[in-house]
Write a structure and sequence with these properties.
Layout (H helix, E strand, L loop, with lengths): L3 H9 L8 H9 L4 E4 L8 H9 L3 E5 L3 H13 L4 E4 L5 H12 L5 E4 L7 H7 L4 E6 L19 H7 L5 E5 L4 H10 L8 E3 L7 E7 L3 H11 L3 E5 L3 H13 L4 E4 L5 H13 L4 E4 L12 E6 L6 H8 L9 E7 L3 H12 L3 H14 L10 E4 L2 H8 L3 H13 L4 E8 L2 E4 L3 H4 L6 H13 L8 E2 L2 H8 L3 H13 L3 E4 L2 E8 L17 H19 L5 H8 L12 H16 L5 H11 L6 E2 H8 L3 H13 L3 E4 L3 E4 L4
Parallel strand pairs: 1-6, 1-7, 2-4, 2-5, 3-4, 5-6, 8-13, 9-11, 9-12, 10-11, 12-13
Antiparallel strand pairs: 14-19, 15-19, 16-17, 16-18, 20-22, 21-22
Helix pairs in contact: 2-3, 13-21, 14-16, 18-20, 19-20, 21-22, 23-24
Length: 643
């Protein structure tokens, strides 16, 4: 058997593992239930992909991220590893083919969404597979105390009983002690001693908060000052476009990204950013999962995340190469209130949630007692318009109904066009086709050589280019070949789905269990409070605030965040000015005494003193009331005795 290092070198070309990867792999290969906590960018996927190639059998990977699942399968196939995935957007034919391949030992890794485990018939099919390792990615989702609890994860315990000899590897990037204990309990760990954890500290990242009610100006200023590749996170798809345009007007190479784009657009934008052609990508949180770019120098949060777990994962995409990088939060005075309002948006009244359930059933034309195990395309825009709903609250209600087990709401999922040849080779010779259709079929046979054995992704635009015809013509010919049972063609789609796990229930029977609603609401309130303290507290090291949230016990301040740097500057100014009384006020007096006649801006004073705008403004107000300074237009200040 090859060693883990030999497998790593053969398939990925690396000579050595990252910290903690080797220890996790050794634990798994020794047959131990294992929990790995690796920060974002720590290389979690390698810890199960390497053992999968060393184990004689199938590795089952349960992950909620369909887009990441598909990307990993594509990447594994490119390096010669046989991998398949199963999720609700696949056709029955594709699912059956993947299961058959796994059953025959022609696959090493099978990815599947946790929602699949809720289907009794699918769990029965799993019994026939040679599963030797079970991997639970984003394992915090199994914990009711986690920030992204998903009830289907609880079905994993049943899978363990099917394969009692298969160890479990649970992986997550962020978890509190409470969540860690819940993960191991829910997954029935036989031994809790095999926990491998890297510190959440990222010593090469400087965490900074900037307070400004005019965030756009601050955004441009920061991107201009910090060279290198950058990500700007915002919560609005519309704002991704607006901010990327703002940066372009400032002559900064920028583009936008969100979940509603087509697969071609997503890939093109990602590739331009990864190659360096685009410097800044402005994105929703749909961007980043599985994006392996080591030289990101700057991550800016234009809008505040609702939890430190989310913030840590997103900011952690900076500086994966170990070089100096920055994670900046832009905060306005209104943001503290916005965080609180997100709690009410995430947990709308229960009667509203019941009404959403009934509206969904009406919209999809599902009769009472019908719909079980049925998958429906869900036009979110049409649904909102028909029932005159606000998107945020409606989306939250759909997610809560999913967690309560009434159906599965699958956010917009882009599926690439794919086809498989269903007619035997010898039958093709007797086909009578129009010339343009025959030319397309011959091009397909030359271009996609594996289509007789499996589905292959195709590009209609590439086929149209090579034939010098329109994409519409290619699409119509592919549909025709499908109707003639020559091929099975699955066109590209970008659409949400709703999968009914149980029949439609009467509205009076729709109940939201305490762990789904009340307890999660309390947990979200705590996470929002922790996020608020991280951003708006200006007297505590930001890194230590975050580390303590993740149950670490830092021994000293980071010395690099804006709070620590301000403290250092304050200490330095204390030695320079030798003031009595309030240090900041004395520092401002000294600075303004040396300032030009037109005075200085608050921002300039902040830069010199290292204090925050809030601290400087508070001190200036006291000095203004004492008639020591005067406040001018443009946020400028000067001593009153200056002419």
């Amino acid at each position: 058997m090859q060693t883990p290092e030999e497998i790593l070198k053969r398939y990925w070309g690396y000579d050595s593992f990252r910290p903690m990867q080797r220890e996790i792999i050794e634990s798994v290969l020794a047959g131990h239930d294992t929990l790995g906590l690796l920060p974002t960018g720590g290389g979690k996927s390698i810890t199960f992909q390497v053992p999968a190639m060393a184990i004689d059998g199938l590795t089952l990977v349960i992950t909620p991220l369909i887009s990441l699942m598909k990307d990993q399968v594509d990447n594994l196939r490119e390096i010669g590893i046989r991998a398949y995935n199963l999720h609700s957007a696949l056709t029955r034919r594709e699912s059956n083919l993947a299961l058959t391949r796994c059953r025959l030992g022609k696959a090493k890794i099978l990815y599947l969404s946790p929602e699949r485990l809720q289907i009794a018939s699918f769990r029965h099919e799993l019994k026939s597979l040679p599963v030797k390792l079970i991997v639970v990615d984003e394992a915090h989702c199994i914990s009711q105390w986690g920030y992204d609890f998903r009830p289907p994860y609880l079905k994993i315990a049943e899978i363990r009983r099917m394969f009692p000899d298969a160890p479990v590897l649970a992986l997550t990037a962020s978890a509190t002690a409470e969540v860690i204990d819940d993960i191991m309990t829910s997954l029935h760990f036989a031994d809790r001693s095999h926990v491998f954890r890297l510190s959440f500290s990222r010593k090469n990242i400087s965490y900074v908060a900037r307070y400004d009610d005019f965030k756009q100006n601050q955004l441009v200023h920061i991107v201009e000052r910090v060279p290198g590749t950058a990500i700007v996170y915002t919560r609005s798809r519309k704002r991704t476009r607006e901010l990327s345009e703002l940066l372009r007007k400032a002559r900064i190479s920028a583009d936008y990204y969100h979940a509603g784009l087509t697969g071609e657009d997503k890939n093109a934008k990602q590739n331009r950013w990864k190659s360096g052609e685009t410097r800044v990508i402005v994105a929703t949180n749909a961007f980043g999962m599985g994006i392996d770019k080591a030289d990101v120098r700057l991550v800016i949060h234009y809008d505040l995340p609702t939890s430190l777990e989310e913030y840590y994962q997103e900011s952690g995409r900076a500086g994966r190469d170990g070089r100096e990088s920055y994670a900046v939060v832009l905060a306005a005075r209104s943001d503290a209130g916005l965080l609180t309002r997100r709690l009410s948006d995430a947990f709308p009244p229960k009667d509203f949630i019941v009404k959403i359930y009934e509206n969904v059933c009406i919209f999809l034309n599902i009769s009472m007692g019908e719909g079980a195990n049925m998958l429906f395309e869900f036009n979110m825009e049409a649904f909102l318009q028909r029932f005159k709903l606000q998107e945020g609250r409606a989306r939250s209600a759909l997610q809560l109904l999913t967690r309560a087990g009434y159906f599965e709401f699958i956010e917009e999922t882009e599926t690439r066009s794919r086809l498989m040849m269903v007619m035997e080779r010898q039958q093709l010779y007797g086909l009578r086709l129009e010339e343009h259709t025959d030319e397309l079929l011959q091009l397909i046979l030359r271009t996609y050589t594996g289509i007789f054995a499996d589905y292959e992704f195709i590009s209609e635009s590439l086929l149209a280019y090579r034939l010098n015809v329109s994409e519409r013509s290619v699409y119509e010919d592919l549909i025709l070949l499908g109707r003639m049972h020559v091929i099975h063609y699955v066109p590209r789609k970008t659409t949400p789905y709703i999968y009914f796990t149980i029949p439609r229930q009467p509205g009076r029977d729709i109940l939201l269990p305490k762990p789904v609603y009340e307890q999660r609401k309390v947990q979200m309130a705590r996470r929002i409070d922790a996020m608020r303290h991280f951003v708006f507290d200006t007297d505590k090291c930001r890194v230590n605030t975050m580390l303590r949230y993740f149950d670490e016990n830092p021994q000293c301040d980071c010395g690099k965040c804006d709070v620590c740097r301000a403290r250092k500057k304050m200490d330095a100014s204390r030695h320079k000015v030798v003031p009595e009384g309030n240090i900041l006020e004395d520092s401002i007096r000294y600075i303004l005494s040396k300032a030009p006649q037109e005075g200085m801006t608050v921002a300039q004073v902040c830069t010199i003193t290292g204090a925050s705008p809030r601290q400087v403004i508070a001190a200036v107000r006291v000095m203004s009331d004492a008639l020591e300074v005067e406040i001018l237009s443009g946020s400028r200040i000067r001593m009153r005795n200056r002419i």
